[in-house]
Structure formats: structure tokens, C-alpha cells
# Entry
Amino acid sequence: MFFDQYEGQVAPVAFHMWWPSGLDSFYKFNPTDVQARRTYYNPQLLNYVPAFRYDGKAGQDLFGTGPAYPEFFVWLRSAVDSLRAIPSPIRIEIRSQYVSVDLDSVYVSFDVIAEDTIQYDVTPDLYLAVCENSACYGGSTGCHRHPFRRMIPDADGEMITIQKGDSLHFDWVYPINPVYTVNELVTTIWVQNDNDASIPGKQRNKVLQSAAARVIDPLASVDVGGPGAWIWLGQNAPNPFTSGTTIAFSVGHAGKVRLSVYAATGQLVTHLVDGHVQPGPHTAAWNGTDRFGKDVGSGMYYYRLETDNGSRSGRMVFLK
# Structure
């Protein structure tokens, strides 16, 4: 509940280890990503995890404070307030989030913008974590605020190169596990300076900027507006396909339309339509290549139609 007072200003992620035992259902839900974040901070101390980190800095062990437990929150409030006062050279803007109509995936569009000179010793990484505002796990671990579910595309993040004046755009998608509560989902994004912990005198693992946004309710992804404000997206055909497929869609009135293809990991593959279209039915073809003309691999892909009046999405399977 502590972070509720900082809503919109702080992006908390609650990672969980194997306490109180190996039967801990919070930990067992995603041990791979959790272990990766543990070793990220403590590559040598594999049997210990600090109770709290903010902006890459370690806090005192919450379970070692005993009667002084309230003092932890005094320290925490002071740390949060002091770090919030320091301007960040980076801004992260989550432009949009949509849930697919079949409730199986979330589409996220965001920008990473460097507004000032960035001091780092190695190339920073971009991370995206799927969290829930509140979630309950079985067994002895109960319910938690801001619990982590998984990393997209994985716990290694994506290395980015960014300097003052740069603006990087990302279109990612992540699947919705059936155990998630969709209206509790929070997309949390951050850029972290992955300093080598062995170099003395360096500020380790500093978070350069973070952002978090609740996922839009699925009803927000359907048609809105007045007469003619409707959209329709059909299933691609053939599906599965081996060399090419066609996607049909219709719009109620003229306007900007974007029809995009995404990999299962969330990265944008290509835009099939990106511009002004007239009202009525349309089709777009995809031959299994990315926006650079290179062949993509076999697997499941997402396609998403975006208009001023809402969005639609679907899935397709490419077999080479």
C-alpha cells in the first residue's frame, strides 16, 4: 500500500523468491525470470536477496528489522522523495495499450526519449515487466500488491543505444495467461544502466527512468463514436499459411488506419497498412517478411488493426 501515494510517479515491481519454502507459489509461478533478476543484482551472492531496491540501490533487509520495522518505511519514504527530486535524462511515454478482443494478448506502444546527456559506462537495457495491481497466489503466499508475473521478451531485456535528442519507438505485444486478472494488469517499463558490478566507484544498476500504466479495459478496444464509427477485422486466410496470407478489414468512415504484424515476443515485424483509407472493405497481404524485406521464421504472429475509432486484433500461424 506504500506506493499508492506515489501513483503515476513510481513504478514498483514486486519480485519474490522461495520464501518461506520451495513450495512458495508466488516464486514457482515464474522461477526463471525471478532467478535472472536475483543474479542480475547479486551474481556472487546466490543464496541471498536484499528485501528492497529502489533505483538500483539496496535497502535494509525488511525481515531483519524486528521491532524497528516501521523505520524501514521512514527510510523508504526518504529515499523515494530524494530520488524523485533528481531530474532524469530519459522520458518514457506509454502511448497506448489495448487488449485483444479474445482477451489473449496486450498490445503496448511506447517511446523512450533522451532529453539530456546520459551518463553510462555500458549500453543500458530496456525492460518490460507484466505486473498486477493486486494478485492472490495459492498456498501460504496469499495476496500481494504490484506482484511481478513475467518479463517481455525475457529477463535479459533489450539493449538500446540512445543519446541526447534521440527518440526510440517500440510496439510490443505480450500474451495474457489465463490466471491473470485482466483489469488488474499493469505494464511496467524501465531503462536500467547495467554497470559492471566489478568496477569500483561506479553506480551499479541505476534505473534511468521507469513508467507504468494499467491495461485498458477490454471494452475500450471496441468501436466508439457516432454513426459510421465502426471497424471490422477478419481472420487471415489461409491460416496456417506457408507462403502468403490475406487479411480483410472494413472501416465505417475515411481516416488513418494501421494494420501491423507482431512477433510472439512482442516486437513489431511490419506494417501492412499505414495511412489514410476510404470507408468500406479492404484487404492486405503478408508474405512472411519483415519491414526490412527479410524472411521471418515459422511460428505464431499477431496482427492488429488500429483506427481512430478503436482496434481489433487476431492471431495467425506461419509455417515454412
In short: The chain has three helices and 19 strands. The CA atoms of residues 208 and 255 lie 37 Å apart.
